[in-house]
Amino acid sequence: MKCAGRCILVGSLILGGSHTLAGNQSSPRVGMLEQAGWAAIKAGNHKAAAEAFAEATKLEPKNASLWLGAGYTEFLLRHDAEAKAYLQRALDLDPKLSLARAQLAQVVKRQGDLAEAIRLYEIVATELPDEKGVADTLDRWKRERELHERMRVEVGDHFTVSFEGPEDAEMAAQALESLNRAFWRITDVFGTFPARKIPVVLYSGEQFRDITRSPQWAAAAFDGIIRVPMRGAGEKGEDLDRVLAHEFSHAMIRSLATRGLPTWLNEGLASALEAPDDLSWTDKTMATVAKAPSLAVLSTSFARLNGRDAQVAYAASTRAAKRLLDEAGGVAIANLLRDLGDGKEFEAAFLHRIQKSLVDFESSLSQ
Ligand SMILES: [Zn+2]
Q1: 215 CA → ligand 1 middle, Å
Q2: What is the mean pLDDT of the segment spanning 178-203?
Q3: In this structure, are 181 and 279 located in the same domain?
Q4: For the chain, how many structural domains are there in total?
């Protein structure tokens, strides 16, 4: 089962080149670092971007556009607390820096504060009236708010399930039961519980595509909220238990590590845990490719992949995660995730918690 962690970025706006960001008064060194930072973002090298902006902000701490770059980079790295602080600093230095406000809105939206995200974006929309993307995003967020306001909520011990009409009440009760089964099974694997109740929203297929903007192949999504297209899932005959267990696994993983997580580990664990007794699809899929994609390639988001490539990416990731579960166990993996959440570097944390180097682990996968 697939899902896409989706992020709508004003990145296209920033990287589109229509805005001159370098402060005129910048020293040549700072100008160079700023340019290098944006080039690194464009090339997908977020670590190099973070380093460039860190040095630049040290040299010119009062340059708002540098903090925008630093904040945007942290957003891409999913370091939301840092992203928020840096973007806020950019706005404190230059309250007219709309791009920082727009990016800050994306951060608070991802943190679950839709009301604040809309408030910020409404300001951005007045500041950038010609940016169609801004108006579209604002409209979509408002549709999401309106929909959620008219939804009913079924409250369980571990989840709250929101749904739209009375005709969905039975489906919501069924989803809650399914989620509770997944809860006990998967918390047992990791030996830990999520800190708080997890919000679940049931959508129609159309609402789901509109609000999450997931790729066509996505069966559900998790972005702090488990979002499931109920009627859509039913129509495709997909197994609700699998979809919900998959998304709950993401919620568990996120409660242990909000950052530093390679996509193969996140998606692989969720796929391996959705129905652990039925993983034959991974071997079938892998038998159709000459060579499995490397874990390094599988570390970035799958959202950009087409259906076929996504299937291979999921199969390879699931196979790796299953091996990890079998060899090291869920508790060791939970400790690895906690280390990543604490900011530890992946390969070092892997060696420490799994007692095997990542390189050795990867080469053992093909054996
Ligand atoms: Zn997923």
Answers
A1: 12
A2: 93
A3: no
A4: 3
